[in-house]
UniProtKB/TrEMBL annotation:
Region listing for Disordered, in residue ranges: 636-657
Pfam family, one: Nckap1
GO cellular component: SCAR complex
GO biological process terms on file: cell migration; cell projection assembly; cortical actin cytoskeleton organization; neuron projection morphogenesis
Species whose genome carries this gene: Oreochromis niloticus (Nile tilapia)
Domain of life: Eukaryota
Protein name: NCK associated protein 1 like
Gene behind the chain: NCKAP1L
Upper classification of the organism: Eukaryota, Metazoa, Chordata, Craniata, Vertebrata
Biased composition (Basic and acidic residues): 643-657
Length: 1093
């Protein structure tokens, strides 16, 4: 008959089911209690009266007589029914679970089962777990404030829809009433089970006191140390109570506290029960029911015993134990954590060095993990609900990162060397456990058939194992063997069993040892979950974040910070099929937050080091050597040195001179901190959090990319108000210093710095970076357009073809910058290297926009003077008519001014292009942006083509283009009136930049006539002819004002021909006497002395 009870199977199934129901009840409580998650129908104003009525009359609600109170439900009965169904069914699950628990507990009592945690461990553990789970379900259910409203609304909607109440409603209503005072009802229910529960709990008196020791005794016993007994290092770690060694303290305390609350009668009659209970009360103030739902054990116990006669002494015991916890609890657990940090560190170091010890010493790993987990869980639940204490520091641990780190390290070692563990234990099972078990069975006097079949199958299963199975990577599965052992425990633990297990302790010892060994072969992950799963942090995010912050503020803890995001990978294991919606993406958010914080700290240190190095590199720049040269000159001329009061500037390199190496400077501290932070990245390359593969180093790369981009832009020092900006060469030197030091990061951590640098610098060649921020390209484009070229268009800055740069004119006004310091070859080469071909393309597009704006205005002026220009084109060889027509022509100076601006812009663009010859792109339209010269500027062609509209015919556009050249040609003599039109032989150009007209006329004409498919050479010949004619007429004018700069203007005609790929000197000589050019050059160079050395 005992075999048919299936106690083992029922315990297993009910524990699993009960855990799901408990999680579901907790989720409903949290949902209804959180204003953000609370169901909408409970917060609906229209439902308020109905909910109040239901709560008042529950469970005897008159659904027909008081319809006026329930009209809101009547109107929305289908919605109410659908919304409350899941809650109603969840409460029905509680009834179903309770019924099955009642039945099983009564069956176990009827069988008079024997319980001893040291003998039938699994049977006893499952029994106590079921009792605690059932109690937790009822307590959590009683804490759901809206349960009556939810059930009442469902039944109301059900009756309105179907005409009758739900069949289960009366029982459900009755259960809610019974558990209004849950502890009173539960103690009544468990009265008949007192003997069995007490027996099971008292078996802990050999285990719990031995585990609940202060850190001093752990230290004196050298607990968890592999080095304490070197001679026994290779011996297998085993004992008679293997599973009890890593059994959770929290679990045992939950059994003891709740178990003796349910069956409290033994506390007055049994001294052993009383001592065990008081020891449990001294362990802490709070016990976890589930998730973040806790039980204030002293308050609950005191409230319960207050209403029971004869328990005054127990109440005094409770108060004494509570006072003991408040005074000593925090310090005791703080010392335990301190001991465990050192013990786990030693264990990790030894096992890392000799992973072969993981086989014989696997028990040490799981003990270490379990002990550490217990201390962490204790601190978490007490930190969140911290009592008022004189020493709150005992509940704050700023070294939690280290303990978590070594726990993760041990978990990682077990996974990494799982093959080693498997090989050892497969041999142990086949060559030791199977033989010992066989001898034990042979020595039994009585062995019934059912038990004999099970034990024989154990021996045959174990005997058939071999190391080859591990080498062949075969899958092992001993779950059936472990379930059979649980069945055998159930069969042999009932009263009057043919084979009573308590009479055969050797069998229990052998099988408990064998069970542990089988788990080492096929269930290491389950064991890691059982002993070190920390998903509790998912439900205490505030505590978790606080611990991270406290640890990150400690310099010595920075190397352990990666443990925090890694713990987030545990959270996905805490879900249950009965409540899949409970576990959210909160853990992923926490993980990302931690990784971003670590990355921020690391990137801050890295970039601070880079900034220091950049400052050192900056001291070596040529611009800083002036003081050194000046000092040397003073010494050479024997002039008096500066006074002593003046601080002498240190030379570069002085920071490396030290009198005492023990004195740490800022760079030493930064490098030490960087070493600590980078060490934490070595914990793991990647891990999984809720199906997301997380790579910690990618967060660092992302942070560095963002911060580096910001720093580069900040180093540019662009001030739109004062028009200040860093010289391109200085910025390039700074970036090179940063990049050189970033590459040293690869010495600390495996990151692709080259990819990072390429990504950042490539973004700087675009108008905006990946975050939409301004880049170096945008800033320098704005500065050159708004500052340098704008002043050049006003002749405050002059283009110097000879020096290949722009130079500031000497004026009385104060200048914000010197143009030659920003536009010489070295600066433009630096600019080209900074912004690259893509940046130049953007710069060119902006330049072209300004050119097209000028062309638009030029066309308007041509249209205004079209009639006059046509006549001048036709009569250019008739001087008298030309004089009259010139008087009618307006805006000649404006035309030349705008053409000069175009020439200045094109000259600047050509200078930048020359500095980009090292960069090549295969696309023709980007050839000019790549620094390759083109006879016809493709960018200018594209810009002018984009100006065309459907309103203008091609012939009309061509006419405007020809007349524009006429306009320019006939306006050239006006330049002689400007005193700044003088040709500067040193600069190789005119002081008002009119020499840029040569480039403007040639490139603009080439672009316009290319679009119109006309012969460029022919059109420019016409221009040359007309320009020559007007300039020759200038020579006939004897007025001093016009002839003052006549020779300089003649040179402009020569420059136009030299600049043009379509005109030649022969063409020029055919229409303009060369003797005039020769005389013009002699005139402007006559006072220029050439010295040959």
């Amino acid at each position: 008959m005992d075999y048919q009870q299936k106690l083992a199977e029922k315990l297993t199934i009910l524990n699993e089911r009960g855990n799901g129901v408990l999680i579901r009840m907790n989720y409903i409580k949290k949902t209804c209690g959180d204003p953000k998650l609370r169901p909408s129908f409970l917060t609906d104003k229209a439902m308020e009266s109905a909910i109040k009525y239901i709560n008042k009359k529950f469970p005897n609600i008159d659904y027909r007589g008081n319809i006026q109170n329930l009209t809101s439900i009547q109107r929305q009965k289908s919605e109410v029914l659908s919304n409350t169904t899941s809650y109603y069914e969840s409460f029905l699950d509680v009834i179903e679970f309770r019924d099955h628990v009642y039945e099983l507990l009564n069956t176990i009592d009827a069988c008079q089962c024997f319980f001893d945690i040291t003998t039938n461990f699994d049977f006893t553990k499952n029994y106590l777990d079921l009792i605690i789970t059932y109690t937790s379900v009822i307590i959590t259910l009683s804490r759901i404030d809206d349960k009556k409203a939810l059930v009442g609304m469902f039944n109301c909607a059900h009756e309105m829809t179907n005409g009758s109440s739900d069949p289960s409603y009366p029982r459900l209503g009755q259960m809610f009433l019974e558990y209004d005072h849950p502890w009173k009802k539960l103690t009544e229910e468990f009265g008949p089970h007192t003997k069995a529960v007490t027996t099971a709990l008292l078996s802990l008196k050999m285990v719990y006191p031995r585990r609940n020791l202060p850190a001093e005794q752990w230290r004196s016993a050298q607990l968890l140390s592999l080095l304490s007994a070197p001679a026994a290092m290779l011996d297998s770690a085993c004992c008679d109570t293997m599973a009890c060694e890593y059994l959770s303290m929290e679990t045992m305390e939950r059994w003891i506290i709740i178990g003796f609350l349910l069956c409290h009668s033994s506390l007055n009659s049994n001294q052993a029960s009383q001592e065990l209970w008081k020891m449990g009360l001294r362990s802490g103030i709070y016990l976890t029911l589930t998730r973040d739902e806790v039980l204030n054990i002293h308050k609950v116990s005191e409230d319960l015993f207050d209403n029971i006669k004869g328990y005054s002494k127990r109440i005094a015991d409770i108060k004494e134990c509570r006072e003991h916890v408040l005074v000593n609890g925090g310090a005791m657990h703080r010392e335990r954590r301190h001991f465990l940090r050192g013990a786990l560190k030693e264990l990790c170091k030894v096992l890392e060095d000799e992973p072969g010890l993981l086989g014989p010493k696997a028990l040490f790993v799981f003990m270490a993990l379990s002990f550490s987990r217990d201390e962490i869980l204790w601190l978490v639940r007490h930190s969140e609900n911290m009592p008022k204490l004189k020493v709150p520091e005992d509940y704050i641990d700023n070294q939690m990162a280290e303990l978590l780190y070594y726990m993760e390290k041990l978990r990682g070692l077990m996974r990494k060397y799982n093959n080693v563990v498997q090989r050892y234990h497969v041999q142990y099972l086949a060559q030791f456990d199977a033989l010992v078990l066989n001898d034990t069975i042979q020595n039994m006097y009585v062995c019934p058939e059912e038990e004999s079949v099970l034990m024989t199958s154990f021996v045959s299963t174990l005997s058939g194992l071999s190391v080859k199975q591990v080498d062949n990577k075969e899958e092992f599965d001993f779950r059936a063997l472990r379930l059979d052992w649980l069945r055998l425990q159930a069969y042999t633990s009932v009263n009057k069993a043919p084979l009573p297990l308590k009479d055969y302790p050797d069998l229990a010892k052998v099988m408990n040892l064998t069970q542990f060994h089988t788990k080492m072969v096929d269930a290491v992950e389950e064991m890691l979950y059982e002993t070190s799963e920390l998903s509790i942090f998912c439900f205490y995010p505030r505590v978790f974040e606080k611990m991270f912050t406290q640890s990150s503020e400690e310099a010595t803890m920075k190397r352990y910070l990666m443990a925090f995001p890694l713990v987030c990978s545990h959270f996905s294991q805490s879900g249950d099929p009965l409540c899949p919606e409970e576990v959210s993406v909160q853990s992923l958010r926490l993980c990302v937050t931690f990784l971003e914080q670590i990355a921020k700290q690391t990137s801050t240190v890295v970039l601070e080091i880079c900034a220091e190095q950049r400052n050192l590199c900056d001291q070596l720049l040529p611009k800083h050597c002036a003081e050194t040269i000046s000092a040397a000159r003073y010494r050479k001329q024997k002039k008096p040195m500066p006074k002593k009061g003046e601080v002498q500037k240190e030379k570069p390199g002085a920071e490396s001179l030290r009198k005492d190496r023990t004195v740490a400077n800022n760079m030493d501290k930064l490098h030490l901190m960087l070493t600590e932070l980078c060490s934490c990245y070595s914990l793991c390359g990647d891990f999984v959090v809720f199906d997301h593969i997380v790579v910690p180093t990618e967060f660092l790369i992302s942070q560095l990319e963002t911060r580096l981009s910001e720093i580069i832009v900040r180093m540019t020092n662009y001030n739109q108000t004062t028009q200040e900006i860093t010289r391109p060469s200085d910025l390039l030197a700074g970036i090179r210093a940063y990049v050189a030091n970033l590459h040293s990061l690869s010495c600390y951590i495996n990151v692709d710095v080259t990819r990072l640098v390429k990504s950042v610098l490539l973004q700087q060649t675009q108008p905006l970076d990946s975050h939409g921020g301004q880049t170096v390209t945008t800033l320098y484009t704005n500065w050159f357009l708004e500052s340098l070229l704008r002043q050049a268009s006003n002749s405050l800055i002059v283009h110097c073809p000879t020096l290949h740069c722009f130079m500031s004119q000497v004026t009385d006004a104060e200048q914000s910058f010197r143009a030659e310091e920003f536009s010489d070859i070295s600066e433009l080469q630096a600019l080209a290297e900074l912004i690259g071909a893509y940046g130049l393309k953007f710069l060119s597009e902006n330049l072209m926009w300004h050119i097209t704006s000028q062309v638009t205005e030029l066309k308007k002026m041509v249209i205004e003077n079209m009639d006059v220009l046509v006549q001048m084109k036709n009569n250019f060889d008739k001087p008298e008519e030309m004089v009259n027509l010139k008087k009618r022509l307006t805006g000649g100076e404006n035309v030349l001014k705008r053409m000069t601006i175009i020439g200045v812009i094109l000259s600047f663009r050509a200078m930048v292009q020359e500095c980009l010859k090292d960069v090549t792109l295969s696309i023709y339209e980007l050839a000019s942006a790549a620094g390759l010269p083109c006879d016809i500027d493709p960018s200018l062609v594209a810009a002018i083509r984009s100006m065309q509209t459907d309103n203008t015919s091609p012939d009309e556009e061509h006419k405007l283009s020809r007349l524009l050249l006429v306009y320019i040609a006939v306006s050239l003599p006006l330049l002689a009136l400007d005193p700044n039109s003088f040709y500067n032989r040193e600069h190789g150009g005119h002081n008002n930049n009119i020499h840029c007209l040569a480039r403007a006329i040639n490139q603009l004409a080439a672009a316009m006539f290319t679009i119109q498919n006309k012969n460029i050479e022919q059109q420019l010949k016409e221009f040359l002819l007309l320009a020559s004619s007007t300039l020759l007429q200038l020579g006939q004018n004897v007025e001093r004002m016009e002839i003052k700069n006549r020779e300089s203007i003649y040179l402009l005609l020569h420059m136009i021909v030299e600049e043009s790929p379509f005109l030649s000197q022969d063409m020029l000589e055919s229409c303009f006497p060369y003797v005039l050019l020769r005389n013009a050059y002699r005139e402007v160079y006559k006072s220029f002395i050439v010295t040959l050395g």
